[in-house]
Amino acid sequence: MKQIDVAVGVLIDADGRVLLARRPDHLHQGGKLEFPGGKVEAGEALGAALKREFLEEVNVHLTVPDNIKPWLSITHDYGDKQVRLLVVKLADFHGEPHGNEGQEVFWLHFDALKAEEFPAANIEIIERLRTAS
Ligand SMILES: Nc1nc2c([nH]c(=O)n2[C@H]2C[C@H](O)[C@@H](COP(=O)(O)OP(=O)(O)OP(=O)(O)O)O2)c(=O)[nH]1
Ligand SMILES: [Mg+2]
């Protein structure tokens, strides 16, 4: 099965809160929480994909170099879909977050993240946030 590269942004504000969104029910892994992001387009740099997805999905302008390297790279096979999450930690942004696709968007302190509310591939991200930050 083809593996899909997904740009995933962990945006952390000055108070240690992380920006989260709830995946719309009709999408893959619908109803789960996610870090904003989406599929990297062919030939697109990771930083460019993050900027595009954050603006499209949650109305946030990121300052991030196009050639940023992932903090974590996580491959996961959901059975119906195989993904590689390219995860970047972000802090520099402007704009008021808003769910442009009608989805719930909110800030939550990283201590309060619960892995079971996220897609299975996110477990490692949440563990690493707890230990590395
Ligand atoms: N954005 C995001 N996607 C995640 C996370 N964890 C995880 O397993 N995924 C998976 C779910 C999806 O299969 C895939 C992301 O695809 P997506 O549907 O959000 O892609 P997209 O934003 O480009 O959406 P579309 O244009 O195809 O509608 O990655 C996460 O924390 N954030
Ligand atoms: Mg998305």
Automatic annotation (TrEMBL):
GO MF annotation terms: 8-oxo-7,8-dihydrodeoxyguanosine triphosphate pyrophosphatase activity
Which cofactors is this protein said to need?
Mg(2+)
UniProt xrefs under Pfam families: NUDIX_4
Quote the PROSITE patterns the UniProt record gives. NUDIX, NUDIX_BOX
Top class in the EC scheme: hydrolase
Keywords on record: DNA damage, DNA repair, DNA replication, Hydrolase, Magnesium, Metal-binding, Mutator protein
Q: What Enzyme Commission number(s) does the record list for this chain? A: 3.6.1.55
CDD domains in the cross-refs: NUDIX_MutT_NudA_like
Question: Where would I find the Nudix hydrolase domain in this sequence?
Answer: 1-131
- Gene3D superfamilies (alphabetical): Nucleoside Triphosphate Pyrophosphohydrolase (3.90.79.10)
Q: Which InterPro entries match?
A: Mutator_MutT (IPR003561), MutT-like (IPR047127), MutY_C (IPR029119), NUDIX_hydrolase-like_dom_sf (IPR015797), NUDIX_hydrolase_CS (IPR020084), NUDIX_hydrolase_dom (IPR000086)
Catalytic activity of the protein: 8-oxo-GTP + H2O = 8-oxo-GMP + diphosphate + H(+); 8-oxo-dGTP + H2O = 8-oxo-dGMP + diphosphate + H(+)
Family, according to the entry, reads as follows: Belongs to the Nudix hydrolase family.
Q: Which NCBIfam families match?
A: mutt (TIGR00586)
The record, for PANTHER family, names: 8-OXO-DGTP DIPHOSPHATASE, NUDIX HYDROLASE FAMILY PROTEIN
Q: Know the name of this protein?
A: 8-oxo-dGTP diphosphatase
Give me the gene this protein comes from. mutT
